[in-house]
Write a structure and sequence with these properties.
This protein is mainly β and 249 residues long. The protein is 0% helix and 64% strand.
Length: 249
C-alpha cells in the first residue's frame, strides 16, 4: 500500500523508461590532490502506473491507470577523484532540481516533486595486469518537503557495487547490484500512512566494452537487475545501458 498525493493505492504496477543525458567537464587543475568534475543531467521519459485500488476520500477507484510523458528533473553533479596505483577514490555531491514532469493527482510521474541533495564516496580497485575490477559507491540523500502534498521523504541511503573481469583490453563481464535502505521515516502533515520507510536490493549480470572514436576512448555498459528484499516499495526488474563518450581532447 502506497500513498501518492492525496490518494492511497494498493496493488501497484509500474513501467518506466528514461534517457538520461549528462554533459560534464573534467578540469585540468588539481583540487585537494584530486581531479575535479562538474556535470548536469537531464532527459526525457515515460511512466505508466496502475493501481488495483486507489482511494481518494471518500471515493474508491478500481484498476486506475495513469501515464506520464515528459522530462526528468535536473541533476547537478560535482566530484573529486584520486588515483594511487590500482586504487581509485571518489567523493561527490549531487542533487535534484524539481522541474520535471510531476502531478500530485496522477499515479505516474517522472520528476519527484521536491528538491533533494545526495552526497557520498566511492572506491574502485582495478588491476590492469589481471583485469580484475571491483567498485562500490555509498551515499545518502536528504529530501526537502513536497509543498504540493505536504509530504517529506525521509533520509535515504544507497550502496551501488560492481565486480567484473576484463577478458581482453576491450571486453568486460561481471555482476552488479544495489541496496537502497531508508534511514528515517517519511513525515509531514500529508503523510497519512504514518512512519513509512522502504528498502530494496538488486543483483544481476553486466557486460562492458571499450572502443575508440578516433583517438578518443569510449565505453558502453549494459546491466540487468532483479530486485528483491523489497519493503514498502515496488519490486521488479531493471535494465540500464550506459554510454560514455569523451568530447574534448
Amino acid at each position: 500500500t502506497f500513498q501518492h498525493g492525496s490518494s492511497i493505492n494498493a496493488g501497484l504496477s509500474a513501467r518506466e523508461s528514461l534517457i538520461l543525458m549528462q554533459l560534464g567537464y573534467v578540469g585540468e587543475e588539481i583540487i585537494l590532490g584530486g581531479q575535479p568534475y562538474v556535470g548536469l543531467g537531464w532527459g526525457p521519459g515515460a511512466n505508466t502506473t496502475t493501481a488495483s485500488v486507489s482511494v481518494i476520500n471518500p471515493n474508491a477507484q478500481f484498476n486506475r491507470s495513469n501515464t506520464s510523458n515528459g522530462s526528468t528533473d535536473i541533476y547537478p553533479l560535482a566530484s573529486l577523484t584520486w588515483n594511487s596505483g590500482n586504487n581509485n577514490f571518489k567523493t561527490y555531491v549531487t542533487g535534484d532540481i524539481p522541474v520535471g514532469t510531476y502531478s500530485p493527482t496522477s499515479l505516474a510521474a517522472i520528476g519527484i516533486g521536491h528538491a533533494a541533495v545526495d552526497a557520498g564516496g566511492g572506491y574502485t580497485y582495478l588491476n590492469t595486469t589481471t583485469g580484475l575490477e571491483f567498485s562500490g559507491v555509498l551515499g545518502a540523500t536528504y529530501n526537502w518537503m513536497n509543498n504540493q502534498t505536504n509530504y517529506k521523504n525521509g533520509i535515504d541511503s544507497h550502496l551501488d557495487w560492481s565486480l567484473s573481469q576484463f577478458l581482453s583490453q576491450n571486453w568486460q563481464v561481471g555482476i552488479a547490484g544495489y541496496v537502497y535502505y531508508q534511514l528515517t521515516a517519511d513525515s509531514g502533515s500529508g503523510a497519512r500512512l504514518g512512519a513509512f520507510k522502504s528498502q530494496v536490493a538488486a543483483i544481476g549480470p553486466q557486460i562492458g566494452y571499450l572502443f575508440n572514436i578516433g583517438k578518443k576512448q569510449a565505453y558502453i555498459n549494459l546491466r540487468a537487475y532483479k530486485e528483491f528484499w523489497a519493503q514498502n516499495r515496488v519490486e521488479g526488474y531493471a535494465t540500464v545501458a550506459t554510454i560514455s563518450i569523451p568530447l574534448g581532447k
